[in-house]
Amino acid sequence: MTTAVVIGGGPNGLAAGLRLARAGVDVTVLEARDEVGGGARSGELEVPGVIHDHCSAVHPLGVGSPFWQEIGLDRYGLQWAWPEIDCTHPLDDGDIGVLHQSIEETAAGLGVDGRRWKLAFGDIVRGFDELAPDLLRPIVNVPRHPFRLAAFGPRALLPATMMARLFATPAARALYAGVAAHGFTRLDTPMTAALGIMITASGHRFGWPVAVGGSGAITRAAADALLDLGGTIETGVMISDRSQIPDADLVMLDLSASQALSLYGDRMPDRIAKAYGRYRVGSSAFKVDFVIRGDIPWRNPESARAGTVHLGGDLAEVAYTEKQRAAGVLVENPFVLVGQQYLADPSRSSGDLNPIWSYAHVPPGFDGDATEAVIRQIERFAPGFRDTIVATTSTGTMALEQYNPNYAAGDIIGGANTGLQTILRPRLALDPYATGVDGVYLCSQSAPPGAGIHGLCGMHAADSALRSIGRR
Questions:
Q1: Statement: residue 151 has pLDDT above 80
Q2: Percentage of the chain surpassing pLDDT 90?
Q3: Which residue range forms the structural domain that includes residue 250?
Q4: What dihedral do alpha carbons 115, 134, 410, 258 form, nearest 10°?
Q5: Three-state SS for 461?
Q6: Beta partners for residue 28, in sequence order
Q7: I want to staple 334 with a disulfide (CB 3.0 to 4.6 A). Which of 28, 88, 360, 405 is the partner?
Q8: Who contacts 439 (Cβ-Cβ below 8 Å, separation ≥6)?
Q9: Is the bond into 405 cis (omega within 30 degrees of 0)?
Q10: In which region does residue 424 sit, left (phi positive, over 0), alpha (psi from -120 to 50) or beta (all else)?
Q11: Which alpha helices (H) appear in 110-256, and where do they start and end?
């Protein structure tokens, strides 16, 4: 029987293991921590009974992932819950951009920009199930739906700032800019519109749900599915040297490019080793988890109904903030994301104590404390927030790396979205999962299609491995 060892039990490592196990491969997953999950783990922090997502929180591409749907994670206990409103982006003058799952409802709330919003995203939403497979795989491939891809391409190549200026109102511009800012990159450079368009369209298609009980429920379900197929999972196994990896026909690396290089660099062809060595990180976050009594006292009541709130001011401010962050400067009011998962999933709360998930975009490797900046940004749009805080847990960039070594210098999305690296990660290749070492494949979010709890990096890497042994 063909054997495989998966190094890393995050969503992509588990997805790779599942794909291989379903093809009859004997799979063993080795996870360094005491539980699987990687970026999808949840649990208590300072207050018993209050459940926090330790990293990833909201999952439009989780519920919409064709791979998780194929596995049927609901059969292993996974349940999704949707907030009343997906996302808001409040402005200082009281105006607000409101993103609903329904594109019609979103457009209705954007006034004169409603028609433009539907023109910008409507065709992509309608064709999302056909377009997504072409976008959520290596870019160097023959498209299955070339006409849909051709219609998407011109918009995707734009700078996000130019895409935002297609709208006339500050609220619509800010709403799109906040979504585009999920890319952790300057918004005034080419191709930065793509991620904002993709997230917006996927949200209109699937909504922005959370996993009931916390994001860890996703990976617990995936782990149970793998065990059901006869796979083995070993936790508390730290691999720091290639000699520690058990003999196997296939080795799948749910690791960063730099970790893969440290394990196999001496066996990689020089061109591949150099490409891994050039791979850039830099999408750093500073995470702050709060326990509050009651709800955040948002000035605009729409935000009190939203699962996610983007805090960054208008388009000009968001663009400036991200440009400064990319240049290594933490501005006074950084871009902040706030998650109110308990609105959709009350099981995370304890009585009137509720978890608030937040993080600020900070310069790569930022080694300071951004807690006060996060609180100040929330207070800006929710005066009195500080008075609701019962407990605070701050996780800086290096603490994020300690939590998950894949998050080098706090880079939670597996590599900087700059230049061609945005679409060619970790290198330009027909098969970017192959490391150049026989039987060894990169299956992490540093490979296509990148960050997200969708499992598709692992699925595609496993398909590459299966092709190499003639099993696909």
A1: no
A2: 83
A3: 3-42+64-79+211-280+414-468
A4: -160
A5: helix
A6: 5, 232
A7: 360
A8: 248, 249, 250, 251, 465, 468
A9: no
A10: beta
A11: 114-126, 128-135, 146-156, 160-164, 170-180, 193-206, 216-228
Q: What is the pLDDT of residues 266-308, one digit of tens each?
A: 999 999 999 999 998 878 999 999 999 999 999 999 999 999 9
What is the predicted pLDDT for the residue at 200?
Answer: 96
**Hey, which residues does 140 pair with through a beta bridge?**
none
Report the CATH number that the domain containing residue 254 is assigned in CATH: 3.50.50.60
Q: Please name the amino acid found at residue 354.
A: N
* DSSP output for 115-151: HHHHHHHHHHHHTHHHHHHHHSS-SSS--SSHHHHHH
More confident residue, 6 or 138: 6
**Is 197 part of any domain?**
no
CA 205/CA 230 separation, integer angstroms: 34
Which residue has 């197929």 as its token pair? 229
Q: What are the beta bridge partners of residue 338?
A: 309, 358
Q: How far apart are CA 283 and CA 370, in angstroms?
A: 15
Tens-place pLDDT, residues 204-224:
999 999 999 999 999 999 999
Model pLDDT for residues 70-103, shown as the tens digit of each residue: 999 999 999 999 999 999 999 999 999 999 999 9
Beta bridge partners of 103: none
In this structure, what are the phi and psi dihedrals at residue 283, rounded to the nearest 5 degrees?
A: -100, 70
For residue 252, being part of any structural domain is answered with: yes
For residue 146, being part of any structural domain is answered with no
Query: What is the signed CA dihedral for 209, 286, 357, 233, rounded to 10 degrees?
Result: 60
- Expressed in percent and rounded to 5, the helix, strand and coil fractions of the chain are 40, 15, 40
Beta strands across the sheet bearing 389-395: 96-99, 85-90, 306-311, 336-339, 353-361, 285-293, 389-395
| Its pTM surpasses 0.90 | yes
Kindly tell me the sign of the dihedral angle through the C-alpha atoms of 441, 442, 443, 448. Answer: negative
Domain count, the chain: 1
The answer to whether the CB of 128 falls within 8 A of the CB of 145 is no
